[in-house]
Fold this sequence. Notes:
Number of strands: 10
Shape: elongated
Transmembrane segments: 314-340, 361-385, 405-426
Keywords: Cell membrane, Membrane, Transmembrane, Transmembrane helix
Pfam families: FtsX, MacB_PCD
Strand content: 5-15%
Largest sheet: 6 strands, mixed, barrel
GO molecular function: transmembrane transporter activity
Strand order of the largest sheet: 2-3-8-5-7-6
Radius of gyration: 30 Å
Domain MacB-like periplasmic core: 20-226
Structural class: alpha+beta
Amino acid sequence: MFHYYFKLGLRxxxxxxxxxxxxxxxxxxxxxxxxxxxxxxxxxSGDPLPHKSDRLFVxxxxxxxxxxxxxxxxxxxxxxxxxxxxxxxxxxSKMGIRRSVMYGVAGPVEPARRDLGAFxxxxxxxxxxxxxxxxxxxxxxxxxxxxxxxxxxxxxxxxRALAEKLLGTVNPVGQRVTVLGRPYLVSGVLDRWDPVxxxxxxxxxxxxxxTEDEFFIPFxxxxxxxxxxxxxxxxxxxxxxxxxxxxxxxxCTWLQFxxxxxxxxxxxxxxxxxxxxxxxxxxxxxxxxxAPNMLYDVRQWxxxxxxxxxxxxxxxxxxxxxxxxxxxxTIGLLLAKFSVRAAEVGIRRALGATQRDIFxxxxxxxxxxxxxxxxxxxxxxxxxxxxxxxxxxxLGTVAHLDVPMLLLTFAVSVLAALLAGLLPTWRACQxxxxxxxxxx
Length: 440
């Protein structure tokens, strides 16, 4: 009977087309608003490495001077990065299966092509483990070697977009490109890689939803050449000597660091190391605040940096509130649509149809309306997300429908229609056959 009632529901869409169109449009607008908002929230709060996010950790220690400190104060963003001394010690610690320190760099790119002038590009200076830790895919070549890491060799990994812009679609491994004022040997080219959010480097000039880094050079090479830092730096109250070397010797925090452990259960071992390290540093006169030493896995890190703030969550609740308002209007329209079919219901009941049959028929019909609303809602959601994407590149990284959100659009639309149809359908089942037959 389902197939029959479904076909009947499709035919009944042509009954009173103006009323049907109004119901479909009301549902579609509510569904589009809620799904578009939830899609953005879903992308913003996503986990780019769900299978290993519980064993990737950001260490946080407080090296800021004691002046102005109140015990128990919530850690600040300035403490979310490390000073060079601590990053160097953590790299030498051998804790975990991988360790990576990094900082943002930016500067001119000088193409060999005469038809292309110099331009500015943004990149990252990490250690070699970064690529395996964050599962960065390669189109050509591979990361630089451990020996390159140790010596600070002038090698470079290019993004696919930058490689194609400079050298075309050929394999450029082994060629040289001039970046940051010096020639670098290309060791690899990344495939498309644009994690959302950019959990590996949320603190920086690009933020959680910025565009991909265009090139990668060894951390040791960047330090050796005293390459300038592109990102945030906290030096409040810190004694700092002149120039780049003064920054390295100071307690200014500007480096980001990640540990990868073999399992989530090794977190306590890493925490013990962090506490022991802080105790040793206090003996040397550092870390006077005696603040707790923190470890954040990926999900905790996103929460700490408030990647999804209260405004985003409020917007989602308001969108669902708007959907609820659309449902109330749809209920009224369905009541009007079904009330004019009382005679039809009375005749069906007189011919032997049960209340359950009537309920099933009318509920399936509301489901058909929900499907129609879902199709239109999907188109409206695409249009809304396209408008949002056009506002900036950052919004473009989160304002797109994926398969789960596509399925959610139809699920929300059909479920909303079925919920809206419960009362009108129940009212239709209460028709008394005898009274309807007498009135005909």
